[in-house]
Amino acid sequence: MGDRRTARAKAPAGGFRAAWSLLGRNRDFRRLFLASVISLGGDWFLFVAIGSLVLEHTDRDIFLGLLILSQELAFFAASPLAGVLADRIDRRRLMIVCDLARAVLCVAFLVVGASTIWVAYPLLAMLSLFAAPFDAAAPAAIPNLVEPDDLATANAIGGSLWGTMLAVGAAIGGVVTATLGHDTAFLIDAGSFVVSAGLLLGIRRSFSAREPREVDHPSLRVAAVQTVAYARRDHRVLALLAVKGGFGMAAGVLALIPIFAESVFDAGEIGIGLLMACRGVGALIGPFLGHRLSGPNHERLYSSIGGSLVVFGLGYLTLGLAPALGVAMVSVFVAHLGGGSQWVLSTYGLQVIVPDHIRGRIFGVDLAFITLSLGLSSLGAAWMADALGPRTAAFILAGVALTWAGVWWIATRSVRRRSPFDTADGTAPSIPPQTLAIE
């Protein structure tokens, strides 16, 4: 594995200082980051706008769950093919095409209203079909856009990016939707995808280690078999793939955020925006905290993932008891410290372990697992909120999160006994060990 002391000595200064440093000196990664910032910010405008519109015109929590399910099932169905596409064709061009297609679809949301609320469901599903290749290609490309020493920092930035724009986009989206209307939110979302595509167009580095023409082009069936075989052969990969899939079984509790804001605290769009913003701030800080707690060489990677799952469950358990909006905001923030941490740590592990030629497929499977389980969990959360009340639903799903944390911890015992990036036969990982350090 090489000298750990050397790896630590070469490690960049960590946390937010390292993040600013990387963004300042790496133009291509900065453009990818900004493209994703703008795109995700528009996404959360859309979520707040559509979520409030559905609740306003249906007055049933279950329809919000069905809305999320339509989005997540489409993403799940598209993810395996999306992963293959991310390995077979130019990742940058793929992401640009997906951005432009989603811009057109966002404009189509202008037809959604009281009598056409059903149109939101197929439109969200179509958005997901184009989101899947983008989301598989982005994390697969990051190791090729940064130097090895910067990978951990880039991973933390990528994870916190989601939280940053959730915090900003959701909070502003709540205000914009309440004051300027839903149509404004739809147009902002469309414009965000166009700007994102323009930023990606200016990136110079290759998004892949080899040119697409140099890579084998397996069929979808062969690619799926190769992906499963790879994961079964390397139990570290299997453990990391299981993290998000199991997390998704409880993450449907996210569907309760607008329900708590509207029904429990009577705070409307502003309440939705505030709770979503707290979710985003937790997801912003969680990645950096998770990398730090996992150790200078990430030797505590799996332990930190397990602890993060527990924090997520405890946060939403507290939400079920929250007497006021302020307490609920703190509960959601704490929950997503854990949620953001487990997400980026499991992603980082896959970026380090999995070679470039199959990385897109692995991330396609990873996203498929979380999408399916999250979609079903969201539907279950909305049904329980209708039948049992939102507080009871939060208790049940928090229990699912804590149970999964225990099951995953026991099941990964053999993996946790050795260094996270050592293969079973002691050979070195596909990325040099100095990428593993973050101070």
The domain tally reads 1
What gyration radius follows from the Cα positions, in whole Å?
Answer: 21 Å
Strand content: under 5%
Residue-averaged pLDDT, rounded?
A: 78
How does CATH name the architecture? Up-down Bundle
Quick one: CATH class? Mainly Alpha
Helix content: over 70%
DSSP E strands, number: 0
CATH topology value:
Growth Hormone, Chain: A
Overall outline: globular
Q: Describe the sheet with the most strands.
A: none
The number of helices is 17
Kindly report how far apart the N and C termini lie: 19 Å
Structural class: mainly alpha
Parts with pLDDT < 50 across at least 5 consecutive residues? 1-14, 424-439
What's this entry about, in short?
This protein has 439 residues and is an all-alpha fold. It has helices at 4-10, 15-25, 27-58, 61-88, 91-108, 120-145, 151-180, 182-201, 220-233, 235-251, 256-264, 268-293, 301-321, 325-353, 356-387, 390-411, 413-416.
What is this structure's SSE topology?
Elements: H1 4-10, H2 15-25, H3 27-58, H4 61-88, H5 91-108, H6 120-145, H7 151-180, H8 182-201, H9 220-233, H10 235-251, H11 256-264, H12 268-293, H13 301-321, H14 325-353, H15 356-387, H16 390-411, H17 413-416
Q: What do you see in this structure?
A:
The protein has 439 residues and is mainly α. The longest helix is centred in the N-terminal third of the chain and has 32 residues, at 27-58. The protein has helices at 4-10, 15-25, 27-58, 61-88, 91-108, 120-145, 151-180, 182-201, 220-233, 235-251, 256-264, 268-293, 301-321, 325-353, 356-387, 390-411, 413-416.
